[in-house]
## 1
Amino acid sequence: MLSTLLVQLLTGLSGASSLFLVSAGLTVIFGVTRVVNFSHGSLYMLGAYTGWSILSRLPREPLPFILGVLLTVAALALLGALLERLLLRRIYAAPELLQLLFTFGVVLVVQDATQAIWGPNDLPLPRGRWLRSFVEIGDARVPLYDLILIAIGPAVLAALWLLLTRTRWGTLIRAATQDREMVAALGVDQKRLFTSVFALGAGLAGLAGALSLPDGSANLQMDLSIITDAFVVVVVGGLGSVPGAFLASILIGVLQAFGIVVLPQATLVLVFVIMAAVLVVRPNGLLGRPQAIRENPASTTLIRPAEPALRWLGLAALILAAAAPLFVGPFLLSVLTEMAVAMLFAAALHFMMGPGGMASFGHAAWFGLGAYAAALAVKGLALPMTAGLLIAPLLAGTAAALFGWFVVRLSGVYLAMLTLAFAQIVWAVMFQAVDLTGGDNGILGVWPAQWATDRLVFYWLTLALCTAATLVLRTILYAPFGYALRGARDSELRAAAIGLDATRLRHAAFTIAGAAAGLAGSLAAFSKGSVFPGFIAISRSVDALLMVLLGGVQSMAGPIVGAIAYTGLFDLLLLATDQWRAVLGLSIIVLVLAFPQGIAGTAHRLWLRGKEA
Amino acid sequence: MKTLAVTALSRSFGGVRAVDGVSFAVAPGEMLALIGPNGAGKSTCFNLLNGQLRPDTGTVHLGGRDITGLSPRRIARHGVGRTFQITATFASMTARENVQLALLAHHRQIWRFLRPAPQHHAREADALLAQVGMAEQADRAAAILAYGDLKRLELAIALAAAPRLLLMDEPTAGMAPAERTALMALTRDLANQRQMAVLFTEHDMDVVFGIADRILVLDRGRLVAEGTPETIRANPAVRAIYLGTGATTGGH
């Protein structure tokens, strides 16, 4: 028994080591540049692939292995520096959300590029004898490589600590983490500092990637799976804190190792519960510093109900949409159905993101929960479709209310990272709970009720429900609740001074947005006839973000226009190319570079030029 | 009864006693100025009253009710209005909507989801804006108002809750001299009309001595003088603090 515990503990610690390597890079980069680098997971993945290419050509002895790993680190550090100089440097002044979106664009491009270079198959590394050997501790046999990994974590922590406290460069990094403007004012060459910090972080990610090879393989899923864990670690440890990242990695790593033995189904949920518990007690993470309260500078645009011209245009579009089935074919009809669902999904995200001021990076969680709830209601409980459509928003709303309870106490990137992590956990739960959800195979045969099986009828039903729900959201935004929510976003200070409870308002908005996304998800489920974990994937959350940002955060019409434009363009893209990830990623990168203050923000300014707001 | 009664209020930061056993009271309709050199503890004292900070010891009573250590939101609910050193208004709304939202909050009508907010309390909001001379600006966005107008808008927002006490942190900071006098004269009238107590900190001594009924002087966390403008002007301890004889502010 004792030896089993020991083995699990050591497994956990070795997992914690590689988690720490990735998180340390992420947190140092954030500390200095204030960019949450989504593509850090891509660097880890590239480290694994590069490491594979180097190590599989070298003799399988310890010394060549070390050499190969060091070469990989150097290659990745160089790549990181290039990435910073060519791309990231240009977005330091952009809003946080756009930075996150931008680096996600890099993730997409790297995914397609990696597949093009190394192919779609997993690449396992042939292991030398020494990599397969065991060490006897008591009556337990522990893989030698686990012990090596366990030693590397603290060794890297010590090296980083020496680097940060004993060198001039390290002093500059720490100074920049505390006060970037002051460091610039003292005449430090910021550009070189940023590039070098990025190289350091990328090198660490590369190290972790290469070191992951003996226990696994280089594969195309590793970027997103590691980045979710790294986000959790960095948030729990405190953004910008390397020792915090170390503590949190051990906490999460050990927890995962034991969770798999004790409660395999609940491990992910457990990780989330721990994260929640830490953040409730210490909102800035274990060793993080409080972030300064930012009065929202982006919200200076006056919000007005749509002008009459726009209302007539909307009504005309609605009539056109309702009449469309009479003159379009089945393919266009399915695109139109998709557009209606996307409209509600985007409007739900806009609800919390625009007036609520909470940028969610995991809105697909509610969409997916709604879809699964509806599917399980009709398939598992044999309920009618109408019940499914009712249960979906209720369940998604309830889940959002539970999760929202502590998320709304955070703000900015913390909130974005947490919503993302939560969506990933929901995704993983749906993926793993094979008995209930069919895992990767999904739930099939989720068809509408008898009376709605006709594509035409179902389209009208979808259009009616989505339009109605979007109008309800709009009504709420112009009602006293919506104004109070927006007030709390405009000025926390003033909101408290007139007696508004910002936390409660945001919590309610979060819940409503979750419920609305759940309804959209259930409609998507019935329209596709099936539900897959893909309903909750990060890319779906990003879809919604792009729709809102394309259309504009500052008006209710924005997400609607954005959803229609984005769905149309995306379907065209899918028809035109297999490399949709690369094209989409490049489009995101170009769009953010061209409009660093937001696509809608720029358009809005052009529109208002010459008029008084 | 006094509107605000503060007893033996103290707060330390590390070893520094930023506010040290301060007691005072404000009567309805009275304007009380809180002055002192930089670092005297004015801001800390203010933040102890508005809920931004919790006192180590001492009590704050509003109209006889203990409000010590409550959050800013709860203190607002008990009838304390505020204006800020750097104005804080709702930038995405018009001036009228700013006041309407404050009225909705005051009447506890925030949790309504149907009728548009601009259809609530419009006349009352316009009346309040008229009181502060902002009637003509009612439809303009708060984001584009001139700074002096923002200050007056803040006043109208604060008045929406019919406060018993108004806390004004450096109300005339950043304003031209002529505007300063006008704003404080307006506040004076409002205090008289509504029998509203006003406590303010201020750097401009012309404003302080021209408007305040009474003045409190803080130095290094302690209350060193209290009285009418005339008595404060004549007080040697105050002169020493501001002019620096070397006897009281010299070496340590």
## 2
Amino acid sequence: MSEAIAINPTEEQVARDHLAHHFDTPQQQFDAGTLGMWMFLATEMLLFSGLFCAYAEFRATHPDVFRYAGQYLDPVSGLINALILLTSGLTMALAVRFAQTGKRFALSLCLALTMLGGVGFLAIHAKEYFDNGQAKLLWGTHYAPSVGPNGKPVAPVTGLTALVARPKPAASPGWQSLKSLGKAGFVVSHSAIMPASVGPSGVAASQKPAAAENPFQPANVQVFFGIYFLMTGLHSLHVIIGIIVIGWLLIRSLRGEFGPGYNAPVVYVGMYWGVVDMVWMFLFPLLYLIH
Amino acid sequence: MTTITGNTMGHTPAVAAKPDNYLTHGKTIGSWLFTLDHKRIGIMYLITALLAFFIGGMLAEVIRTQLLVPQGLIFHGTGSVASSYAAYRYYNQVFTLHGIIMVFLVLIPIIPGALGNFAMPLMLGAKDVAFPKLNLISYYLYLVGAILAIVSTVLGAVDTGWTFYTPFSIQTESYVVVMVLGIFLVGFSSIFTGINFMVTIHKLRPPGMSWFRMPLFLWAIYSTSLIQVAATPVVGITFVLLMMERVMGIGIFNPALGGNPVLFQEFFWFYSHPAVYIMILPAMGIVSEIIPTFSRKHIFGYEFIALSSLAIALIGFLVWGHHIFVNGQSAELDAVFSFLTFIVAVPSAIKVWNWLATMYKGAIVLKTPMLYVLSFIVLFTIGGLTGVVLGALSEDVVLHDTYFVVGHFHYVMMGGTLIGFIAGMHYWWPKMFGRMYNERIAQWTCVVLFIGINLTFFPQLVVGAEGMPRRYASYLPVYQPYMIASTIGAYIQLVAFLSMAGYLMHSLFYGKKAPMNPWGGGSLEWETASPPPHDNFETTPSVGDPYDYSDLVFDPAVNGYVHIEKPVESLAPVTATH
């Protein structure tokens, strides 16, 4: 709103109608809301920061676990989701612009597209979760993937690659399937990863029997999946909340409530959606591209 | 929002006949439960937090009674080890609940929630906080959190201590998840309050009130909000992780699953150490308001007090490691955290010196709020200095987990935060309810409470230095004299608090009508009626120096202070002393 958009007398009246009793001007009210929203988003980042700290702590003390477990995730799904979120970020930013310029149809369209992006993201992510569940690539005591020959885990391909590539049963992990799409036969062996003989000092030894069955698997792989599900789960929760709130905006937009005089909710939700996008831009490389 | 303005307009003709205030503006229960008025929300916080304080205080009396005899007076076995274990588990539950209720439901929300909500917009000359609806949501998050905490007590009271250290909190059979969920909600209440207050101070200051013309209470509230916003989300995610540990077995903090229990301690204290500044900073703000008012003298070192609040808020984020000196932290980190702990004592000391300098050569009026402030300075100084003792590495290794720590933080929390709150409550009581309490009884109560607190907690410092561990349901007979003294002190405190409840309740119905400005305060909340009208001010007040008392004189006709035409010659000396 800092940029000057010509406000005609009717819109000025709309702005006055939305002015709460304890503010002097619509500008003051809008600035207060913006500042409040930025601070709220800062607390959201801090909420995630605890998980990022946990990630850093465990990655520093269990580098072998992260290298080993990272290959179970499918970078193609992660990348497509990143592109989807980036696109929805664009449509959301356009929605804010159209709200400010009073283009109501374009506003509604952009909001609907943003919602669609969010739903698409969740759908792909749900497929990944489902495959993780099938392969028992889960957290804590639920981590129990069956082990193939040469210590290679069975069918760990997750996400979209599984749909497209259809790797052989008992095949290599997802990222290898990705590479095999372009460079047939190029397979990096697991054996490059040395098994961890001992856990880091200060951390109790794993009680997982899987480590004994699979000589290539370091201890405590389940910790990675604990962190993976926490980080992506919290992020998905934010996407769900975002979709709901954008749906509420869409209804109001279809009623014609937003225009140059009053568009603060669209701006605030746009800020929120931008942060949700941004978190994924950190999660994607940290979780999917570490191998 | 617009409807409210409409209502106010609609009622104006009827209001003109009989003076309307925020307490009488709308008489239905709904007008309280769904109010967006910061003053009413403040009163609702006050009532809820005082109820929580009553429960927490009763639990404290149970703890002290238990410790009257070495084997425990209330919870003790029938001779066998197993029966003792079962009985002492109840003791663990009692001190855990005492800690959780006092920390999360009383100390953290009581000053910002009750006094901050009530006084802050008034001191700004504003009509409300920036986000009134969010303010109400904050209150209900707090209420629901408090109810969940109490529900968990009924289901199976938590016995982990208020710190919820893993892995015990993962293993214990008590209802940790319900309790932690309750605290999680209270945490979000705290975050929203912090955002609300910071935006209010940024955006709703009246023309003419620059940052360095704000009353110091607002600086304190601002610094507190900064910590609330920056630290609470971290404990929020920590408690989410703890719930996930118990519900899903996620394994981040569970060593049996490859997790790291010390990480929980790091996360917990990253919040919970700054949280003690959430508790103490607003109390310091109250002290900074009361001292100049009752010394009839301009505050000394305004900028230093204001900026030391920010300094405490910022440095307070860098000292959490001193809670885990003996829990496997490296010696290098220990040394850094010890050093930073010493540093954070400096801004607190700056405040104390400036308060003393303000009182120096002032015309001190020993009314109840001022008496409590003097108690605050004594008790907080003891608490602060024992904190420096604990911040020293080698001493902490000896004193860790002894009653010395208990004595130290009760001096700070009880003698600092709670006494500061009580001082503020007495200071703004006439403004809140439009009634004066019985001054003489209130003064004596303050003296009794001061004696009670010292008698309770000073023996704990001594017995801790002699080696008595904290959180034990039984102890060696050699410590019994100290324990008896401490328990007597706790009973004396109970008497003082019952007296306080009595005369404050009495004042609500039979107290003398309060004038607009009973103490001669210079900040804007004293420029409106007691109690204030729904919209806070009939006319927009003019902003001046909040600590300039030169034009305020006592008028016996209204039993309060009124403005006079400022004598020109009195202006010079006042500014000169500043």
